[in-house]
Design brief:
By secondary structure, this protein is an alpha+beta fold. The protein is built from five helices and seven strands; from the N terminus they run H-H-H-E-E-E-E-E-H-E-E-H. Strand 2 and strand 3 form a beta hairpin. It is globular, with a radius of gyration of 17 Å.
Length: 223
Amino acid sequence: MTLKASISEMAVSNRLSQARSRVKTADIAFAQISDIGPEDVAALKEATERQGLLVVMRCPKPGAVAFQGVFPAKRAVDGYDSKGSVVKSGESGLGVHPERRNFFVSDYDMMSLWATAGGGRYRKLFASALTPTSRSWSRQAMDAVRLLNMALQSKLQHGAQDDYTPPSGKTHPGVSPYTRFAAFREGEATYLRSMGECKAYYGRWNLYWPYNDAGEFLEAAKP
């Protein structure tokens, strides 16, 4: 039987192969399952260990690892056209704006940000979107994300989803049962294959989980 590789599969293979001289094998393996760029996996592990952080992120679309660090991460302005219609990246995580024609790759969506409080405990660093009904970023959160972005090829584009309280008339994106996540805890990377695994991870480290069993947003944590 002849096996056939798709263009997307070949792009992923080439991207990971090119990174082998720059990052560890374990980081490449994590990049392959999480679709976070291999250099960014290494950077997140190093930065969270150095800063004493725990960062939980929603993984990009499957196949997006082929383009992390090659094209800019999707920005807020890339998400809509001039008529207000939603613009999405394709199945491989690569998208193009229909009007500006700029290419972008599925970005890293930060779910929550925490600082070590010692003894396996963590303190939330609020990093919510700056809307009239939501909390602003703490100074430590701003400093932490700034330092993370200095090391990342695909930058963090916005605040933490867990901390976002939508304004009147807007809805919270929530999570779905099949959403994939990646957690970086003081140099350790953990792949979480579903909402259930992410919720269990939050429970393991006593982190506040703001969603119900259907993945609908309930309420942001109190500062």
